[in-house]
Amino acid sequence: MSFEDIYRTHFEFVWRTLRRMGVNERDIKDGGQKVFLIAFQRLADFEGRSSLKTWLCGIALRVASDYRRSAIARHEVLVDETPRAIGAEVCQLELLERHERLAELDAVLSELPLDQRTVLVLFELEEMSGDDIANLLGVAEGTVRSRLRLGRQNFSRVVAARRAGSADVAAGGDG
Fold first, then answer.
1. Cα 131 from Cα 139, distance rounded (Å)
2. Which pTM value belongs to this model?
């Protein structure tokens, strides 16, 4: 498989992983480029002990971690960008709704502890196996199951709290 094939096959996965691990929309292109640059430089070292997707995921997790540390060091306030307007009003509405749903998912995920968020995203959203996640993170598979269970519980708790807050606002409360 050529590097170009690797890029085409895994670009969306890398983008989603970076986004869900806290990389801001405006920095995703740079983060993705960094992931694939590292992968290109180290491709000869890839021994195939894990899948290519798992290997790229490990690189993406490290790039996202570097990004989060540098954003804190720069004291940046990260805000979502407004979606770009496209042709028809219907398409704009669909784009806005999709953007809002993704922003809500990102907001809920951002409230989870990083270890739980990582496992939850990789297992539930990226459909990686518990064994692959354990190998990627260098932890026991039981630890992955525990983090997944706690992540699911916390995800549900955060969603319920956000819904309760929305209901309070709709009812005229402080929210």
1. 10
2. 0.68
